[in-house]
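Let's practice the habit of predicting before peeking. Look at the sequence and jot down your guess about where helices and strands might fall. Then scroll down.
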Amino acid sequence: MNKVVIDLFNMTKRFNIKTIFAVILVAVLGMATSVSAQNVNVTATLDSTMIFIGGQVDLKLEISQPNNVTINFPLLNDTVTKNIEIVEKGGIDSLNIDNKRLILTQLFRVTSFDSGLHYISPLEFEIIDGESRSIASSNALSLMVVNPFKEVDPEKGMTDIKGPIDTPFKIVEIINYIYLYGGILLALALLIWLYLYYRKNKIDKDTSFKKPKPTEPAHIIALRELDKIKESKLWEHNKVKQFYTEVSNTIRNYIEHRYEQPALEQTSVEILASLKSNNEIDKKSMEQLQQVLELSDLVKFAKFTPLADENGLTLMNSYFFVNQTKLEVIKSLEEEKQIMINNESKE
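Done guessing? Here is the structure:
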């Protein structure tokens, strides 16, 4: 500061009072400008320093400033320079740091349709600090625009469109399609196989749980089982519960195959209710069936001890019910003759 005053004093010998005042004013403004500019940092950056012709790149302007300073951005509307155009202009974003400084940013999407190296001169920002004004400039930039196409000679005029080029067929050209459609066909084949496999297993499971139909008439099987129970005389060996269980199961199994209803899975009440509407069973047979089923339930579930006569009555009623309701198939004379021949051959 002292050097400036001495220089001004020496200049008074050559300049008049107005000239001296003007020099002093410029010196003061210059000092104010330098002080304000030192507190403001301005940078300009490009995403890329090279693009193809017609390509786009982002130009970012960033300012770091004190909170008490006002900054006016350069007015850029359509172009940054003669050869660089603005495609899109973003707003100004601000970020407050420690309540002392602000960081302001603004983005511009720019492009160029002129190949070559384009120079972007420093952009000027106006700094307003109270009543003083100053200018802060950004760094300079350069953008290389490359034309990937061959140069067009306008003197050669228009040329005809080139005809189709006959190129030899190559398997490589369709290998991707082979992989694609081959994979689709393979996936479809796998899905069909899985469907058929699942369906087959499901059918096998369903059939495996079905009870096979007896090869003999239901009454033949029931009477044979009753004969075995009668011969075992379980009630005489203090196996009354086992006796009634086997009798009940034999009668239930007979009803299931004779009348095609799930008697083994039904309660006694359900069995009697379903057979009550069957006109083929007379009242006497129903009463005898009821005695067998109800007494068997009392013995099995209520620990009831029947009398000795009731054991014989239960077995007799079981025989009676099977014989009264059995379905006998009338055989032809040829079948009877064949049975007789088979029996004679066995003897």
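How did you do? The chain has three domains: 40-146, 173-209, 218-325.
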